[in-house]
Amino acid sequence: MIADDDEKWLAAAIAAVKQNAFYMQRAIDSNNLKDALKFSAQMLSELRTSKLSPHKYYELYIRVFNELGTLEIFFKEETGRGCSIAELYELVQHAGNILPRLYLLCTIGSVYIKSKDVTATDILKDLIEMCRAVQHPLRGLFLRSYLAQVTRDKLPSIGSDSEGDGDAHMNALEFVLQNFTEMNKLWVRMQHQGPSREKDKREKERNELRDLVGKNLHVLSQLEGVDLGIYRDTVLPRILEQVVNCKDELAQCYLMDCIIQVFPDDFHLQTLDVLLGACPQLQPSVDIKTVLSGLMERLSNYAASSVEALPNFLQVEAFSKLNYAIGKVVEAQVDLPAAASVTLYLFLLKFTLHVYSDRLDYVDEVLGSCVTQLSATGKLCDDKAAKQIVAFLSAPLEKYNNVVTILKLTNYPRVMEYLDHETNKGMAIIIVQSVLKNNTHIATADEVDALFELAKGLIKDFDGTIDDEIDEEDFQEEQNLVARLVHKLYNDDPEEMSKIIFTVRKHILAGGPKRLPLTIPPLVFSALKLIRRLRGGDENPFGDDASATPKRILQLLSETVEVLSDVSAPDLALRLYLQCAQAANDCELETVTYEFFTKAYLLYEEEISDSKAQVTALRLIIGTLQRMRVFNVENRDTLTHKATGYSARLLRKPDQCRAVYECAHLFWADECENLKDGERVVLCLKRAQRIADAVQQMANASRGTSSTGSVALYVELLNKYLYFLEKGNPQVTGDTIQSLAELIRSETKKVESELFINSTLRYIEFQRQQDGMNEKYEKIKMEWFE
Question: In its keyword annotation, does this UniProt entry include Heme (predicted)?
Answer without folding.
Answer: no
